[in-house]
Amino acid sequence: MIDKPLRADARRNRTRVLDTAEEVFATDGIAVPIDEIARRAGVGIGTVYRHFPTKEALFEAMAPGKQPPPKTQPPPSTATSRR
Fold it and tell me: For the residues 48-66, what does the mean pLDDT come to?
């Protein structure tokens, strides 16, 4: 399958989603649902998934080569010092 160039409106929507996702992830963290990113970008959820089938794909498009941060933080160490 040969990828066709995106239409102008599709390019604009893709850019809006990427810009919004970058802002949302920076302020609210990676746990924000995709539908919230779509809402804030002013596009439908299908538009987001058409360009980015997973949250990881969206993150990768924002920062090629970087891995998304873990979805949850490990619990703090409960080790106690020995006497």
Answer: 87
